[in-house]
Amino acid sequence: MQATVKWVDGVQFLAESGSGHSVVIDGPEDHGGRNMGVRPMEMLLLGVGGCATFDVLTILKKSRQAVVDCRCELQAERADAVPAVFTKIHLKFVVTGQKLKEAQVARAVELSATKYCSASIMMTGAGVEVSHSYEVIEQV
């Protein structure tokens, strides 16, 4: 896996993944930025959410659950001192579908947390308290 981060101006950077996708990283205005992109730590949090949501959806599809929507709501806390690392991350999955089996959703979240999500497992290994919850919404 490769990536490139190129300085643009001030505290703005253009990050490009090895697969050719780009994202703007920028700092807040009070740190010389123009607020034109995500912050680096936000990017890490988004990566955790994206990795875990990918896992949950894949597992639910393999178990033939009729998922019509899935989102991961993330809440994170950071240390007050430098380095301001993540200390806690909570992932709440909101899964909407038709006749979803709650046990299957719980299993998908658990498997993501303990076996498949490289990003959240890496955070746990670094001492971050990572927790998970879910909500199942029946589509009418």
Describe the secondary-structure layout.
Layout: E1 3-9, E2 12-17, E3 22-25, H1 40-62, E4 66-78, E5 86-98, H2 102-116, H3 118-125, E6 129-138
Parallel strand pairs: 5-6
Antiparallel strand pairs: 1-2, 2-3, 4-5
Helix pairs in contact: 1-2
InterPro entries: KH_dom-like_a/b, OsmC/Ohr_fam, OsmC/Ohrsf
Protein name: OsmC family protein
Pfam family, one: OsmC
Structure commentary:
It comes from Halioxenophilus aromaticivorans. This is OsmC family protein. InterPro entries: KH_dom-like_a/b (IPR015946), OsmC/Ohr_fam (IPR003718), OsmC/Ohrsf (IPR036102). It holds the Pfam family OsmC. This protein is an alpha+beta fold. Helices cover 33% and strands 38% of the residues. It has helices at residues 40-62, 102-116, 118-125, and strands at residues 3-9, 12-17, 22-25, 66-78, 86-98, 129-138. It has a 3-stranded antiparallel beta sheet, with no helix packed on it. A 3-stranded mixed beta sheet has the order 4-5-6, with helices on one face. α1 (40-62) crosses α2. The chain is elongated.
